[in-house]
Hints:
Mean pLDDT: 93
Strand content: 25-35%
Number of strands: 28
Helix content: 10-25%
Shape: elongated
Largest sheet: 9 strands, mixed
Structural class: alpha/beta
Distance between the termini: 54 Å
Amino acid sequence: MKAMGIIFASIYDASLGDLTNKRTMASLPFGGRYRQIDFTLSNMTNSGISRVGIISKHNYQSLMGHIGSGQSWNLELGENLDFLTPYALGHASSYRGKLDALNAQRNYLEVNEEEYVILADSAVLCSIDLSKVLAHHIASGVDVTVVTKSGIANGSKQLDLAVLADEEDMVTDMAVDYCAEEKYLASMGIYVLKRVDLIRACEEAVARSRYHFERDFLLREFTAGTMKVNVYQFQNVALFNESTEEYYRNSLAVLDAEVRHDLFRSDLTIYTRPRNETPAYIGADGKVIDSLVGDGSIVAGQVEHSVLFRGVHVAHGASVRDSILLQDVDVGAGAQLACVILDKDVRVRPGARLVGTPAHPVIVKRGEVV
């Protein structure tokens, strides 16, 4: 069975504050060289999804520049890859939820012929074979399949969708925007359903001022007993980047070899846009401990338990610890950094000192001088 994919690039931008102030969540850098959309887009192309549409409302120029023609993911812009932007479709108002966003792209859903649609967010990073999810959905005969992860619900983290399932993976309880207890499974923002059912849901819900996919469609229909929902329980690493604290923690989690090898699997390659750079250079006085250092970086100081993206310069005598430095950051001589996230093109003056905590890392916006 053929399936098309829809990726939501900017539904949850507000949850990461300054990091997504001028970019979509999908284009947020991660892992030293990737963008978050690389994971979702690679999962779809690796799984044989025949067509992919990317829905984005604001600040999508960086995302479009990153994806380009789509060739890096074996896709072709305008053929089997489409940017579904508001200007292209004449939809000027702000999206009020996923159903509203999908309804604005209803013509795109209607003109394509794939029987199934796989919806995916850009906030949860994983390496998953979606063809297995689709096969699981078809074999179950249910209306909607939700990809879930155990161990995320903890009673304090608010989940977009939390579910309980029986031994046959059928959903027995469902809650939205809920700080679910540990026994619940957390939705990974990946859903499978028939294309015609999605079109009908968009048309009927938005006509009645219902805009949210999880609350106004899934929960409403499930509670009414008119929809059968099951789960596909994902067993491998899934990183939920739904807050600044989670983005910071998960970025450093990639330093763990087990997490890294599970996220970047040899059988499910994560693709990204190539950028040719010289190899990273560690100076005679430079020292790198338990860190990822991107191509083109020059380290003359000390870097410990940190992630440096491409083109980062750490001058002599500078110390970088427990930090994330995005592309082309320049750290001056003698500067001291701990628990910070520096966005692209930030310049740290010589001798400057920035210290945050794991729960509250210091964030410096793109291009600023500190």
